[in-house]
Amino acid sequence: MRVIRHDGPRAFLDRAERWLLGREAENNLVLGLADALSRSTQGYDSPLYFATVEDEGEVQGCVFRTPPYKLGLTRMPLHAASSVAAAVAEVYDALPAVLGPVDVARTVGDAWAAARGVRAVDGLRQRIHALEEVRVPARAAPGTMRPAEEGDLALLTSWIGSFLEATGLHDGRDPGARAAGLTAGGVLVLWVDRVPVSMAAFPARTRNTVRIGYVYTPPEYRRRGYAGTLVSHLSRHILESGFRQCVLYTDLSNPTSNRIYREIGYRPVQDVMDVDFSSPLMQAANPL
Fold first, then answer.
1. Do residues 2 and 54 lie in contact, with contact meaning Cβ atoms separated by under 8 Å?
2. What span, in angstroms and rounded, lies between the C-alpha atoms of 28 and 22?
3. Which contiguous run of DSSP H or E holds residue 190?
4. Cα distance between residue 229 and residue 62, in whole Å
5. Helix extents (H) in 38-118
6. Which of 88, 90, 114, 171 has a CA positioned 20 to 30 A from the CA of residue 230?
7. 122, 105 in Cβ contact below 8 A?
8. Per-residue pLDDT, 280
9. pLDDT in tens, 164-214
10. In sequence order, what are the residues at sequence separation of 6 or more whose Cβ sits closer than 8 angstroms to the Cβ of residue 25?
11. Angle at which helices 255-263 and 226-240 pack, to 10 degrees?
12. Shortest CA distance to 142 belongs to which of 188, 195, 183, 187?
């Protein structure tokens, strides 16, 4: 089993894209990221890492990282874990976390922790869902969908900050910059029932798939069907634009969101998780 690091995201896609597209929904993150970075690496630190895990000349998995963020993993044979940890250690002295399919993330996380003398701790667990045909929600909420506008930025900055805190996905990037970037890119939409009551974005796409994210309804507007109705309309818009499927991630600890998306046609594809790492100094301070 060999881990082969490629000379940039374009070279990586030349080698791995066909394999990744075989399971496009579950590999949407790395496909979209590598494609975007093949055009511009602005906003990310060096060194970028894109590698294939191969056996007898055949791709068996992929490993990727855009510092300062976590290491990403696709499905791969579990016995590749020590090779992956060793290869990544040649480039990085430390990692904040790994993200991948549950068994892969745990196995690679344990291998990295053992090699680096840190502690591996289970983090956020998510489920990837895909949709190819929209079902109308049983209880459609009143209102309309519209694109976010510059005049919405103050509200959206607050909502994105709340979304990141609630989901545990805060990675240090400024919520205001995210709101401005998503709005300027035309990939952030609002559900409006006299006033804006819910938001969603579609920030990444692959050949046949668009990923939906940043779905958020402030507490005072919840339990009225706004989020489900918005995602239903946005998903239909994406499919009518010519894409084959929509993908989104849900927090497995939130049964409400999982139920809502299931009702409008999303089906489970794969469970993924973070494995976080704590330093020896942190372990001494927090022995439990």
1. yes
2. 11
3. strand 188-193
4. 35
5. 81-89, 102-116
6. 171
7. no
8. 60
9. 988 877 666 799 999 999 999 999 999 999 999 999 999 999 999 999 999
10. 128, 130, 209, 245, 247, 269, 270
11. 50
12. 195
Asked if 7 and 51 touch (Cβ cutoff 8 Å), the reply is no
Question: Measured in Å, how far apart are the chain's first and last C-alpha atoms?
Answer: 36
In the chain, DSSP finds a helix count (H) and a strand count (E) of 9, 12
- Does residue 123 contact residue 97 with C-beta atoms inside 8 Å? yes
Q: Which two tokens stand for residue 157?
A: 């900055």
Residue with tokens 């709101």, as numbered in its chain: 179
**Which residues lie closer than 8 Å to 171 by C-beta, 6 or more apart?**
69, 164
94: helix, coil or strand? coil
Q: Evaluate if pTM is beyond 0.70.
A: yes
Instruction: Determine whether 151 is exposed, middle or buried from the number of CB atoms within 10 Å of its CB (0-12, 13-18, 19+).
Output: exposed
Task: Return the structure tokens found at 96.
Answer: 């904040």
CA distance linking residue 218 with residue 199, whole number of Å: 9
Taking only the tens place, the pLDDT of each residue in 32-51 is 999 999 998 877 888 999 99
Distance CA 121, CA 2 (A): 27
